[in-house]
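Protocol step 4 of 6: structure prediction from sequence.
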Amino acid sequence: MQPHISRAPDADGLLAEQLLRLTRRLHRIQKHHLEPVGITPAQFRLLRTVAHWNEPPRMADLAARLEVVPRAVTTLVDALEESGDVRRVPDPSNRRVIRIELTDEGRATLRTLRGARRGAAEEILAPLTAEQREVLGGLLTTLVDGAPERGC
């Protein structure tokens, strides 16, 4: 008699694929909700990041926090500076260092964007009950804060 060989699908692989599909769907929905404001999800992320610093951050600090290359931050800052949401300011202690400061217009844009983000969240979470949302929140917290990341 031959040993039993499991033909069950790779459950962890399926979960990973579902998470990737959900991430792509969330990105599409968020992008749709942000388009009327004229901001991309990446620009929104940069604005939120700048707003959370106690003092205007350096471009290198933003790149590190966003986990992107410095050139990507430069492109985002260029677009946000053009729209009036941020401005480059010299560092008071080192003239060679440039910091990124949120403008009053940028703060107003953030308030608008938070509403758009809530709309996107409501759309994607609509099929879930309040209890399911609470469970999902706990599971996502465990996944995000759980095991340390390994290099790819």
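Step 5 (inspection) to follow. Strands lie at 86-91, 94-102.
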